[in-house]
Amino acid sequence: MDKEEQTSAAKFLPKRRDLESLHAAARSCEGCDLYKNATQTVFGEGAEHANILLVGEQPGDMEDRQGHPFVGPAGRMLDKALAEARISRDEVYITNAVKHFRWIQRGKRRLHQKPAVRQIMACKPWLEAEMESIHPKLVVCLGATAAHSILGRVVPIGQARGKFFNGQRGETVFITIHPSAIFRQREKSEREQEYRRFVADMRLVERKLRGMAAA
After folding, report:
1. What integer pLDDT is reported at residue 168 of this predicted model?
2. Positions in the chain short of pLDDT 50
3. Is the CB of residue 89 less than 8 Å from the CB of residue 126?
4. In this predicted model, what pLDDT tens digit does every residue of 78-130 receive, in sequence order?
5. Rounded to the nearest 5 degrees, what angle is found at the Cα of 129, between the Cα atoms of 116 and 154?
6. Is the whole model's pTM more than 0.85, yes or no?
7. How many whole angstroms separate alpha carbon 10 and alpha carbon 15?
8. Nearest 5 degrees, angle CA 168-CA 51-CA 123?
9. Phi-psi region of 135 (alpha: psi -120 to 50; beta: other; left: phi over 0)
10. What is the pLDDT of residue 176?
11. Which of 65, 69, 3 has the alpha carbon at shortest distance from 33?
């Protein structure tokens, strides 16, 4: 998996760009070499005209096996935080910057590997097509890979977290951590603290959306 082909998903996009057509076309995407070792394409899911687009990094092991985004521990953490912030998951669209799982084998486990920049860029046409179809008011980047894809540059999460930016297409973009980062805290107290910060970030999103609706 070290010799990735520098290709693009653009040629796999369908002429019709509604979510149903995009989802169907993405199943056969070979826009980069990640499809070779993934179980399946994991496309975005959610409300057709969602106000909020949540963008993660890539599918994890459970997502790759089940074919749905954010169904593992990070997804459950995200659901909990959204509920506390009074954001219904039914009212958002959730996807990943990269639609195939990148991993390495360690014994019986498949361990996550961060996508390469060329893989993020190869998969970007799918994300752009999702955005064009949904027209979200807010794009929430969950982690550095998502922020890189949306903003087109490397984004230091520590500095950008909790802030709003203007996206490449004029959309409002918010930066926060990927919920999986909460699990990487060693101590229970640290995990709880990081979770509370994540909920606070989601509340900022909810307040921003409410303010946009009132404007």
Report:
1. 83
2. 1-5
3. no
4. 999 999 999 987 789 999 999 999 999 999 899 999 999 999 999 999 999 99
5. 35
6. yes
7. 11
8. 45
9. left
10. 98
11. 3
DSSP 85-153: TT--GGGEEEEESSSS--EEEETTEEEE-PPPHHHHHHHHHHHHHHHHHH--SEEEEESHHHHHHHHSS
**Which pLDDT belongs to residue 169?**
83
Q: Which run of H or E residues covers position 20?
A: helix 19-26
All structural domains of the chain, each given as residue ranges with its CATH number in brackets, are 10-214 (3.40.470.10)
Per-residue model confidence (pLDDT) at position 91: 87
Give bridge partners of residue 173 from the DSSP assignment.
139, 165
Which tokens hold the place of 32?
């980069």
Residue 37 phi/psi, 5-degree rounding, is: -110, 0
66 backbone φψ class: left, alpha, beta (φ>0; ψ -120 to 50)? alpha
